[in-house]
């Protein structure tokens, strides 16, 4: 057990490991809730579990949301059903690793957070504005990272539409078709018991598309999230020790190592020869054969067009 805890701590200590951290956080919340449900149900205190769940799920009722504003964040880290979290985390991992390789770990977090928040806002708006949903607003709530995962998936599909996944029984399929399939599936389920949730998925998908298109045009919607991440990191970072040299009567501080290593090294814009070499390599061996630096150079080249 101690080895498992040490492994988790080691994963969280890595600065460029955002995707794994998101998946581990979702998994930890799911396991804690599952254990709590078992214990409280056997103790005939299931009402306590229901209360805990209400503190995490996103309510559709604005009067309830007003006293639980944190749920716009907590809902997309919370799952109850094993197949729900399994699908979301697999979906997130498959597409999230592409964003991580091409755009860096912080962009994965930005797409996940923006997709989750946007999906939540879409859910709230439709339940309060559309007559079909207004009749069901009382007691309605949403859980799950589907909108956030859709944002990452559509973001990756917008960035690399012709990248292929090898699916069992189906063979290689371009990721733009996989994302399109799930978007159509969500559209088909917009009338039904989970209609609000499926519309929230589409909200996450839309922000994923907009995020990448604006990034390619030089505008990064994730800047406020990066600032919040840096603030959070600095809040829990140990202050540098002070070394005093009395002979020189000067105070020296140790360098801020975290600031130097937290950001990935900048990649210079490639020249035409480098671009041709990368494209030849893709033609011979596919996207998977590129190094992380080559992928980032390819993305920089696409921004210059």
From TrEMBL:
GO biological processes: proteolysis
InterPro entries: DUF6576, Peptidase_S54_rhomboid_dom, Rhomboid-like_sf
Domain of life: Bacteria
Pfam families hit by this protein: DUF6576, Rhomboid
Domain Peptidase S54 rhomboid, residue spans: 69-214
Major subcellular location class: membrane
Keyword list, A-Z: Hydrolase, Membrane, Protease, Transmembrane, Transmembrane helix
Record membrane topology: Multi-pass membrane protein
Annotated compartments: Membrane
GO-annotated cellular components: membrane
Annotated transmembrane regions: 28-52, 72-96, 108-130, 142-161, 173-192, 198-215
GO molecular function terms noted in the UniProt entry: serine-type endopeptidase activity
Transmembrane helix keyword on record: yes
SUPFAM superfamilies: Rhomboid-like (SSF144091)
Domain DUF6576, first and last residues per copy: 271-303
Name this polypeptide is given: Membrane associated rhomboid family serine protease
Protein's organism: Dyadobacter jejuensis
């Amino acid at each position: 057990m101690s080895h498992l805890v040490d492994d988790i701590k080691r994963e969280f200590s890595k600065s460029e490991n955002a995707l794994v951290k998101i998946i581990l956080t979702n998994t930890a919340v799911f396991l804690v809730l599952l254990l709590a449900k078992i214990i409280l149900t056997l103790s005939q205190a299931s009402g306590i579990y229901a209360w805990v769940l209400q503190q995490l799920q996103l309510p559709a009722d604005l009067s309830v949301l007003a006293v639980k504003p944190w749920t716009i964040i907590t809902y997309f880290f919370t799952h109850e059903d094993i197949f729900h979290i399994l699908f979301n985390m697999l979906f997130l991992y498959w597409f999230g690793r592409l964003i991580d390789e091409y755009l860096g770990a912080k962009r994965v977090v930005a797409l996940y957070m923006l997709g989750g928040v946007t999906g939540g806002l879409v859910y709230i708006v439709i339940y309060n504005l559309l007559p079909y949903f207004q009749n069901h607003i009382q007691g309605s709530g949403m859980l799950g990272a589907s909108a956030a995962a859709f944002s990452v998936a559509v973001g990756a599909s917008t960035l690399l539409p012709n990248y292929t996944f090898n699916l069992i029984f189906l063979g290689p399929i371009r990721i733009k078709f996989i994302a399109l399939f799930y978007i159509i599936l969500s559209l088909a389920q917009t009338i039904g018991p989970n209609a609000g949730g499926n519309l929230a998925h589409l909200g996450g998908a839309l922000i994923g598309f907009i995020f990448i298109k604006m990034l390619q045009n030089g505008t990064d919607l994730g800047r406020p999230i990066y600032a919040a991440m840096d603030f959070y990191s600095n809040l829990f970072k140990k202050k540098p020790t002070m070394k005093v040299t009395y002979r020189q009567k000067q105070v020296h501080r140790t360098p801020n190592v975290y600031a130097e290593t937290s950001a990935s090294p900048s990649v210079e814009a490639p020249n035409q020869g480098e671009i041709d070499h990368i494209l030849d390599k893709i033609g011979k061996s596919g996207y998977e054969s590129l190094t992380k630096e080559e992928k980032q150079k390819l993305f920089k080249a696409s921004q210059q067009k």
